[in-house]
Amino acid sequence: MSKRYPGGIITKSPATPTGPFETGTAPGIWTLEQQMQFKQQGVWPLAGNVPNFIEDVFSCFLYTGTSATQTITNGIDLSTKGGLVWIKSRSNAAGHRLVDTVRGATKALASSSTDAQFTEATGLTAFNSAGFTLGDNSDYNSIGENYVSWTFREQPKFFDVVTYTGTGSNTTIAHSLGSVPGSIIVKRTDTTADWAVYHRSLANTQYLVLNTTAAAATGATWWNSTTPTSSVFSVGTDASVNASGGTYVAYVFAHDAGGFGLTGTDNAISCGSIAVDASGNGSANLGYEPQWVLAKDTNNTQNWLIFDTMRVFPAAVSSGPNAVRLSPNTANAESAFGQVGPTATGWGTSIGQLNASSTYIYIAIRRGPMKVPTLGTSVFSTSISSADTGVITSGFVTDMAFTLDRTSSGVTPFDRAAVDRLRNSFRNLSTATTAAEVNNTSTVSFQQNNGIYLNGGTVYLNGYVYEQFGRAPGYFDVVCYTGTGSATTFSHNLAVVPEMMIVKSRSTTGNWQVFHKDLNALGTEPADDSRIRLNSDAAATANNVIWNSTLPTSAVFSVGASSDSNGSGVTFVNYLFATCAGVSKVGSYTGTGTTQTINCGFTAGSRFVLIKRADDVGDWYVWDSARGIIAGNDPYLLLNTTAAEVTGTDYIDTANSGFEISSTAPAAINANAGTFIFLAIA
Description:
Elements: E1 2-5, E2 8-11, H1 32-41, E3 58-64, E4 70-73, E5 83-89, E6 97-100, E7 107-108, E8 118-119, E9 124-128, E10 131-134, H2 138-141, E11 146-153, E12 159-165, E13 171-174, E14 181-188, E15 195-199, E16 206-209, E17 217-218, H3 220-223, E18 232-235, H4 239-242, E19 247-254, E20 269-275, E21 282-285, E22 290-297, E23 305-308, E24 323-325, E25 335-338, E26 341-343, E27 346-349, E28 359-366, E29 380-384, E30 389-392, E31 400-404, E32 416-420, E33 427-430, E34 438-439, E35 444-445, E36 452-455, E37 465-469, E38 476-482, E39 488-491, E40 500-505, E41 513-516, E42 530-533, E43 541-542, E44 556-559, H5 563-566, E45 571-577, E46 584-590, E47 596-599, E48 608-613, E49 620-624, E50 637-638, E51 652-655, E52 658-661, H6 667-670, E53 675-681
Antiparallel strand pairs: 1-2, 3-11, 4-10, 5-6, 5-11, 7-8, 9-10, 12-19, 13-18, 14-15, 14-19, 15-16, 16-17, 20-28, 21-27, 22-23, 22-28, 24-25, 26-27, 29-37, 30-36, 31-32, 31-37, 32-33, 33-34, 35-36, 38-45, 39-44, 40-41, 40-45, 41-42, 42-43, 46-53, 47-52, 48-49, 48-53, 49-50, 51-52
């Protein structure tokens, strides 16, 4: 069944909504932005559901200290919603600091210490509607020092902060999580005491201690041998959790409770365990890709681990980069751990990086954003660098970039390169060659909240154009995978059917393979039997093993036995794109040899256009607004060659609805009756 609302038709989910599609604030009445979310993903909301998204309740934010008052704006409303801010210096040995809205600003706890709560007047000084304010305390804000902050907003089915006074006898403590807690961290605040950790993967007679390396221990007096419920958790008589007259704070984490996404059924946080085999391999299936993980080996004396994707938490591959960890039980600076990392559906390792024959418990938080973008500027940026080093801002968290030299330096792969956060900083793939991934620390780093960092040294980066993309449902996704050598599927998080996919082998040489929904090789084959190469000007040809003659779905993409898309043991990256209303368009057109407008559904024109002739020879042309998409001449670059930028041509022009193909364009762009595929971004 379907129902029309202003702007299109969407499919009805099993639940019946309580109101029409119109703006408003009452349950069941949705804003225009929410309506666009429903339309893009093709679902109705559940009755009375007000959508919640992970980007509104959790932030991992990196900053550099100034030794002066500074405000961290991370988009999390702490002043009216409440929550916890956890801060740690990355570059120096300094204590973790945990400050929450219930105990109040300046009231800190250190996770590596048994110390009681202490006041730091120039630490975290205020909670704001979009973040928090810091004073000049060196544990929070020393000049030149690098920090990470993790912000947890109070939200049912995600996280809650509870304070209580101990009774000295078995009792229950009420919470407002709205679901059964998956993990609880308790700290006594009035005197010294260990940090007590409850986790659902342990028995209710067991506990862990956050400030030590100790394995899981048994003690019935900690949680009173009682599993928490959706309204209370139990504490026994141990002084760490319930001394008579003692004051305590509890941080309560949900587990697979739903409550997020358009329908309110998506999970945003999971508390589980990984069983590690004798080779040190193990993985967790979360059903989503995580951005933050807190983990502990429960069988051995080992440090706690915190990983997050804003620092270094790359897809784990053999000979790949190590994940960078911080440990709550120490004040140490961040350090390399091993090759563990996220997948499209979880986290772990298949290359023996965990303690053999052991069990790790974890708290994992879903990667954002969960909202479908409505503005191109929120997920795409194009800029020209004016120096070899420094930040190239984008206005969002950048997940992938094309770095394009305009002068044909010939220094492959850096002059035409694809780089992305999931593979880690400095790892370059040449779009113009078949070369394997190259690591060079003089190129691009992703440890930024807003854009990328150029670390030029041996590589000249001044004057490059940088096309930056942010991952978001309905628009763009990145998946890293290891080939199996036989037909299979791999999960993705695009949330809609991919319309264009760009796949490249990382660990070996191989052609870039491109899937496009409108490919029709030689006029006879469907898209799933077609191949076209990003590193070549050749036309599309028939090939039924690249995509296994199977179209992608909103959950998985298929690959056959080709070494270019699924070689056994070979590592790959896949960039997935879709048409997102008003943001991006994956499409095709037929050439006319005359001026024609390509309607992408935009209102202010295209800022990025990629075009390739599919039925005959033709390069991969790139235009962007940083270099100029105007009524006059428009410079272009080619992704499949290292040739210098071409100026003095007027092959495309502006058009509010998308872009215009000029009558002066060559056959590679507008041959009469030719077939052309494109990707455009507003």
